[in-house]
């Protein structure tokens, strides 16, 4: 039930759950888990991360080695690096970066 647009890149191993949307030019994996109803916008990258339900990863945003709670919003080109933990409902504004 997930939707993967043409031009999206899935790099195994990965898991994309039901209701997820991976837009064209987004990259998911390796070692990425999108649980349910997660949107990964164009040019975003998710690797070595777990992303819980109802999260939106904005255009050009990047997750690497992060644990992301439910209902999180990553803005345009926002970035969460290794070891980052974003709690439920967190909003990382456009161009923001975590360690």
Tell me about this structure.
There is one protein chain. The chain is mainly beta. Helix content is 0%, strand content 37%. The chain is built from no helices and 16 strands. A six-stranded parallel beta sheet has the order 1-4-7-10-13-16, with no helix packed on it. Strands 2-5-8-11-14 form a five-stranded parallel beta sheet, with no helix packed on it.
Fold blueprint:
Elements: E1 3-4, E2 9-10, E3 14-16, E4 21-22, E5 27-28, E6 32-34, E7 39-40, E8 45-47, E9 49-51, E10 56-57, E11 62-64, E12 67-68, E13 73-74, E14 79-80, E15 85-86, E16 91-92
Parallel strand pairs: 1-4, 2-5, 3-6, 4-7, 5-8, 6-9, 7-10, 8-11, 9-12, 10-13, 11-14, 12-15, 13-16
């Amino acid at each position: 039930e997930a939707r993967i647009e043409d031009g999206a890149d899935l790099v195994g191993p990965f898991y994309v759950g039901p209701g997820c949307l991976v837009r064209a030019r987004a990259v998911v994996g390796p070692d990425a888990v999108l649980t349910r109803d997660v949107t990964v916008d164009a040019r975003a990258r998710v690797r070595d991360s777990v992303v819980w339900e109802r999260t939106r990863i904005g255009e050009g945003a990047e997750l690497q080695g992060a644990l992301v709670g439910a209902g999180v919003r990553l803005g345009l080109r926002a970035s969460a690096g290794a070891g980052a933990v974003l709690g439920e409902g967190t909003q990382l504004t456009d161009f923001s970066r975590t360690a």
